[in-house]
Amino acid sequence: MSKVGTDRVKRGMAEMQKGGVIMDVVNAEQAKIAEQAGAVAVMALERVPSDIRAAGGVARMADPTIVEEVMNAVSIPVMAKARIGHIVEAKVLESMGVDYIDESEVLTPADEVYHLNKRDYTVPFVCGCRNLGEAARRIGEGTSMLRTKGEPGTGNIVEAVRHIREVNAQVRKLTHMSTDEVMTYAKDLGAPYEVLLEIKELGRLPVVNFAAGGVATPADAALMMELGADGVFVGSGIFKSDNPEKFARAIVEATTHYKDYDLIAKVSKDLGSAMKGLEISKIAPEERMQDRGW
Amino acid sequence: MVKIGVLGLQGAVREHVHAIESLGEEAVVVKHKEQLDTIDGLILPGGESTTIRRLIDQYDFYDALVQFGKAGNPIFGTCAGLILLANEIIGQDNAHLGLIDIKAVRNGFGRQRDSFEATLQITGIAEDFEAVFIRAPYIEEVGPNVEVLATYDGRIVAAQEGNIMCSAFHPELTDDNRLTNHFIEMVKKSKLVAQ
To answer: Which of A27, A201, A285, B76 has the fewest CB atoms within 10 Å, measured from its CB?
Structure first.
């Protein structure tokens, strides 16, 4: 008797991605470049976050043609984004055989109150988080992987740094609490008590936590690994750079050997200009993607 | 005590380290080829085989790994590790390390939604092994000197040829350490012979 869609199978899939780079791609050609460069997975999108930001309007799940094209082009796992709370987009992506769904704040939320009940799906999910409360709520809903929200499409690492530091500091605090303090912490964070107990016992999150939202250079990727990320999502950074192929390889190497500074120096040479960054304070509050979802 | 390396370029490295340590042996994450000289056996973990292969080439690991295996040192590959060890990969012109006489099929059970858990019988090791298959490969054919250790649904999912062992599933994702323990026994024997 075999069982599909178990926690071990779904979380295990994310474990296999550890130490790797997941790259946003918008067509088969980019997906192949990403695979060649050593990406552990690709995220199939209609537009990368910086273009979504520039275009404005409502951002939705990608056209299934694009997702299919990418799935046919590569042998590594393919992820795709569904809007927060959009049950049908998620079910459609699952039925297409996508390997992982990102319930993503990069798209315009379909539901401002409820996130998806991710236990209803065989396919695993990745969700964004800014702090332990958000991380624990998503785990409570059944996410199998987390990532920092950062501020997508900005090429500015500051928010991703804030989020990974916050989550990890709160995990450390929880780990050192006595058990009778956990319920009050759960109340303060708005986090499920049982999930916090599990985290306390493990001394870490029970699912992997990748960095996302603003990684623009090999050094940014290495920084997030240094701060405790299990791997890195690179959105707009790669295919908005002058030489995507070289850039992609450099990010992969910097992520694998994030403590080898000679190597990071070497791979960072002559990469051409990285994507133009955005100062977070220049983004109107209603356009900040990280504030979508709760 | 034996010292077992886990190739630490990408993938589920921590889980293997944990399993080795919980069996009372020393584990070391191998990130540079020079480290191969200091270990008694090596585990190639699950991950993305294309990514790991690219990093193997990048860091000039290839010849060192092949020599390590050909010299008779025990190697255990799980999932992506099985793909890296196989002599032949169906649908691909080139295999990777070519250290075990098997023909492997990548993602043989389908995509992630088809990933599953099942109870396996592993010859001489376990009657009821809980195996986790994630976008797993299977072995379509084995050479004459390869021992089939386990099958699932008529497909070969674990095998051994001398000092090289592989599984399509992930023993490191459960607390059942019997297969890893079998590998550690192989390493101990090989170390005795070497001495």
So the answer is: A285
